[in-house]
Amino acid sequence: MIKKLMLVVFALVLLVIGAVVFAFYSIDSIAKRAIESGGTYALGVPTTLNSADVGILGGTFSMSGLNVANPPGYGSSPFLSLGDGSVAVSFSSLRESTVRLPHLSLDDLNVSLEKKGGKANYSVILDNLSKLSSGSSPSKSSGNEKKFVINELSLKNIKVGVDLVGGPGAIGNLTKVTIPIQEVKLENVGQTGSGVGGSGVTLSQLSSIIVQAVLAAAAEKGNGILPTEILGELQGGLANLGQLDKLGMKVLADPKELEKLSAGKVTEAVEQGKKAVDDAAKKATDLIPGLFDKKK
After folding, report:
1. Which domain holds residue 23?
2. How many structural domains is the chain composed of?
3. Residue 87 and residue 61 in contact, taking contact as beta carbons nearer than 8 Å
4. Residue 156 above 90 pLDDT?
5. CB-based contact 42:205 (threshold 8 Å)
6. Residue 87 contacts by C-beta under 8 Å, 6 or more apart in sequence?
7. Backbone angles phi, psi at 241, to 5 degrees
8. Which of 70, 132, 209, 210 could join 74 in a cystine, given CB atoms 3.0 to 4.6 angstroms apart?
9. How far is CA 249 from CA 15, 70, 124, 168, in A?
10. Which range among 26-35, 133-142, 200-209 shows the weakest confidence by mean pLDDT?
């Protein structure tokens, strides 16, 4: 009897050890899926992550290669890409329903803004975020979703590329401008702010806040650089969301770099791009009668 009892206890111990080992080796993939799912749900476009690394023993988390796809009908390059992200957190905190992070750093963000046929990719993204904040988008079924409070969120080395005309090839390259932003800082994310006061934010909400912060920084530092139409659309879309009001957002950029992107130069580039498009269209029109004349 004792021998059988010992066998049962031994089997239970093996099961527990097996479960711990499985959790240890699968936690990276679980974190990766959670980030991809949260981003896709919030932004309404496929979000993928190359790798996630949860250091259980060291209390660290890092990720790399985050890509947010462009909405359908726009360029093949991602709407947003992230180089690396890292945070230090205790394993005991990860077991809580709301995880408090002293600092979260995301580095090397690239954002691509473009307009085609009177509609902009950033407008599609902002519309999706608006549905999320208003609750009109289908809610996620999980009631035990992990939430986060972040004392300081830091977004570093941001490059916002703006396609001013949306022309192909050399024409498109002629009318592109890149706004460099050194850093965006947010404070007490999940602790204050509309709809999330003190209760933490989900990964979907965090994805929304990060994208909003980057677009708000582009609008702030792009004032006087971006065409008034694009600037107005960004400011209007962000105003409808209003989640950044109480997060103490600070945007750092090199004034000298921004001075190089004067409104005059951008306007001149746009006019050159439009002229190139008109010239190409005129050449095509002139060529068509010539073709018909040859057939005669």
Report:
1. 2-295
2. 1
3. yes
4. yes
5. yes
6. 60, 61, 62, 101, 103, 104, 105
7. -90, -50
8. 70
9. 48, 26, 24, 36
10. 133-142
